[in-house]
Design goal:
Elements lengths: L9 E8 L2 E7 L9 E8 L6 E2 L9 E3 L11 E9 L2 E2 L3 E2 L5 H4 L6 E7 L4 E6 L10 E9 L7 E6 L3 E4 L7 E12 L2 E4 L6 E4 L3
Antiparallel strand pairs: 1-2, 2-5, 3-4, 3-6, 6-7, 6-8, 9-10, 10-13, 11-12, 11-14, 14-15, 14-16
Length: 201
């Protein structure tokens, strides 16, 4: 029976970045004693509450265990505070699907090699691709002059991307992002910080 004297956790939210997800909440203030927290989960396919690896924990966040780090599963979580034998009421999250609700970070540019008319970028995606993943890179590039004309193109998920038809001995800047095509629609990733390189002579 939830205690009317122990408030339930507030600001309960699922934070998900590059398909790694965790539940977090604000600490419950009490005058004496230390508050512990318990988190349960259930899935859309099997709607029974299960313990996560977070039972009576002092911290105010709980990472998803590998068993439910599934991109297309619907997950619902609940958390409560506990002070000695007294539990608070449960607080439930809304349904969460990683492939619909995660934030994708920018791709990482590992290396850039310049020729007289092109830049060759060696890149890795922000997440570990799974079989059947469909995503592409959107590359934005521009000549580093007073003109701000930007061009862009898309490239399927390769590890080498070429920006071609460039002028020689000219400074070009570029930025890229991942566009992930999932069953629930497209996810647009965050754009990388601009990087500038000069083409060769």
């Amino acid at each position: 029976e939830p205690s009317p004297h122990l408030p339930a956790p507030e600001d309960v939210e699922i934070y998900s970045y590059n398909f790694h997800s965790l539940l977090r909440w604000s600490p419950v203030p009490v005058e004496t004693g230390s508050v512990l927290y318990t988190v349960h989960y259930k899935t859309g396919a099997f709607p029974v509450w299960n313990e996560m690896n977070c039972t009576r924990i002092p911290r105010t966040q709980c990472g998803f265990p590998p068993a439910i780090q599934k991109r297309r599963w619907t997950i619902v979580l609940r958390v409560r505070a506990e002070l000695g034998p007294l539990p608070s009421a449960w607080v439930l999250t809304g349904p969460f699907v990683a492939e619909r609700n995660t934030t994708l970070g920018p791709p990482e540019v590992k290396a850039v090699s310049a020729s007289s008319d092109s830049l060759l970028l060696s890149v890795t995606p922000p997440f570990k691709p799974e079989p059947g993943d469909s995503f592409q890179y959107r590359v934005f590039y521009w000549e580093n002059t007073t003109s701000t004309t930007r061009k862009s193109f898309q490239e399927a998920h390769k590890t080498l991307l070429q920006i071609g038809k460039l002028k020689e001995s000219t400074l070009y800047c570029f930025s890229l992002r991942v566009e992930f095509e999932g069953v629930f629609g497209d996810l647009l990733g965050q754009q990388s910080a601009p990087e500038c390189h000069r083409t060769a002579i």
